[in-house]
Structure formats: structure tokens, C-alpha cells
Fold LEA type 2 family protein.
Amino acid sequence: MSLQARTIRIVSVSLYAALLSLLGGCSTWMGSNYQDPDVQLLNVEVIEAKLLEQQFRLNFRFTNPNDRSLPIRGINYSLQLNELKLADAEYERFFIVPAHGSKIVQVALHTNLWRHMRDLIKLLEKPDQPIRYQLQGVIKTGLMQGRRVHLLRNGEIIPGDIIPE
């Protein structure tokens, strides 16, 4: 093997090893004192509401308690009202949350509530009764391979407080 070929091979193996160490996972990259980000659903905006399709914008705040910036590769999530699953969706855009900082991310949500209309009408018949909601998801962190952070938020909304008279 020539000197040039050996040099190229050594450089290739070194680069490969360096890449593997970077992609070894978010917890290795972040350090042993890594803390999961805090994720809050700030609000839900109605963009368009047609009979067969509705478009919403979910506004999330990601807060990073760590000493290093946190790359996020995407979010898989589902949304339920009572036991009624309204949406399963994916947000596949890359963004970075700065160290000890936060970032607000707007996520589009498309639904077809027509198939749930009867159940939704029953929920709204008593506007003073609370409706339980559940937002469940998985946040994919890291550069290529990384840690998966599970998200679960439960709460209640009172339809009469948000539906105009």
C-alpha cells in the first residue's frame, strides 16, 4: 500500500471515529448532568375551519436548562379531548434551543373533525362542564441519533370560557 493510500485511510478512519463519537447520543454529547427540556403548550390558534378540514397553529415554548445548546430534530405528538383522539401529527423541522434559553416554535396541525362531530357536539352541549385534554408526544433531540424526550400534558378546558356567546 502506498504512503498516499495509507494516509488517506488513516484520515478516513480518524474522521469516521470522530463522527461516531459525535453521533453517540445526546446524553454523551450533552454530558452526564443533562436535563430534559421543559415544553409548554402556550396556546392554540384557529387558522382555518372548514367542514372537512381544520387548520390550527400550536405554539410551544421549549426551555433548555442545560449548559449547551439543544438541537431538536422533530416532534411526534397526538391530541385528545376526553377519550376522543383528534390528531396524530409530526413536526419534522430542525431547530436549536440555546443554552439556558428558550425558543417558541409554531407547529401546524391539520384535522378532520367531521368524523367526530357527534361526539364533539355532546361535549359542547354543556359549556360549563370541563373537557379533559391530553397532549402526548416524543421530542427527538440530538444531531442524528439522540435522546427521545417524552412529553405528556393533561388539563381541562371549559368550553363556555372560550366559545363566544
